[in-house]
Amino acid sequence: ISLAAISCYYLLYKLCKEKLPAITGASILALTGTFLSKLVFLNFIATLAYTPLLLLFTEHKDKLGIKIFLTTLIMLSAGHPVAAFYTILVTATFVLYRNWGKAKIIFEIAYLMLCSLLSSAIFLLPFWELKNLSLRDRISFEEFIGGRTNILEFHNFIIPIKDFLNYPVDKYIHFGTIAFFTLIASIFFYKKFSNQLRKLYLLGLILCGVGIFLATLGFHHSIAKIIYQIPILNLARVSARYIFIFHLGAIFSITAFLTHLVKRKSKWGKPVAVAIIINSIITPLFFLEQHKITEGEKQYFPEIKTKIEELTEDKFSLTRPPIYFLASSNYLFPNRHFPNKMHNIIGYNPMMPKQLHKHFPVDPVGAFSNPNYLQDYFPKLIEVGLKYYIFPTENELKKLGIEEKIAVTHFLQEQNFSLLTEIDNRIAIWKNQTPVPFVYFQNPENQIESINYHPGNIVLTAKMKSPDTLIANQAHFPGWIAKYENEQTDSKTHNRVVESYKIDKSSKKIILSYQPQSYENGTQLSLLGFLLFIAYYVARFFNFKPPSKT
Q: What's the pTM?
């Protein structure tokens, strides 16, 4: 947010040459609903934060190069592809409008951004592959347009009162009451603006129009159906978040208006600017959803991991699951927002594979449609390595008014699960006394002696008497391979969910490694992107120019 505010200030100051309007615009952006009402989506905010910086660098006509390339590359690597699209859309609109008729500059900026896009393929291609494997990739058209901004929600531009007109609202469309009225009032002063301010003001209105159109996409079915077929764009389940584009447009138009007042030495210039800044500071304190990062972390109960580490064997034991499998099939969570009556497996997990859904009918957010999933799917859950089960305590179930769920506790006791501990008398951690090991051979004569976990690698030492099939109880994703005795084999599915490897030779050391083809392809494209970027500087060094006309 600080990056967004600072870079927005410098961008607006470069465009209007006045400090107070620039400070005002930056305060609107930093304290707008787009940012502060969605703090738990850090990758969304982190990506959008680079937007004003990228726009600022496009104005540096003689020093584009490394600034455009690196800013775009970092923005793409921030982690939210839909937010990255917002930024690219805004940048394209900004560049085309500000450089209309200057084909060379437009081409140069487009070329640099293309180099960044290619250079980021090393993580974009694996993301694309995983997206296609994820259950969250299955989204209906109704879900796609369901996150639109409703006309009844636009009262939130004036004041964000919850459930106004009995309609549930998302308050992130609000960016300040005074700022909104200032935007409306500015329309009546447009004819008095200088040519430079008119251009900035019109740019703002264009972005406002684009933002509102996309935010209300669900009402434009014919166009929405086209966008629904476009990769990346169809990930935007909450099209109302396109309102960020409107916010940027409003900031440009308000900045142009305030600059006009300040330069004309109007008595209203400073009071209006100060009022907007104060309103921007007050808005998140009283109106916007108060999502705090620390509160969000508490919802995931990090002490669960600590308790299990304390109460189970030492951290090098084979029976103890590695930390990074906390959200794997070894754990079942009630819900990410505890307490909740949803029937969930492993909490909110956007990387839940479609293959898991074939075996366990789980929704993308991790909820079973069957409230009795534990009892009904228990043999299957045990088969894939269920070791711990986390569930509300009997006391908490009574508080929630769902005492019938105490039957789950009795079922766990019948299945020889033991109670490890209770946390805050709210959640209980149950342990399976005879779990299927995380990694094991089908032939019991072959044994795993030790196991070490590393990012993307699992290193095993084994005592093998004969070739065998190795089972790893982690969700199967293409790209996992086993390396042993100068041999290598790809993973196959076992029990339709987890991984298996055919080990054709007895080996003392086996390495399970994640090496997806998308990563290798992405590496090659990234190298191409860097080479194209170097070619850009080589061309500038030799100062290639078309032959002049005689």
A: 0.80
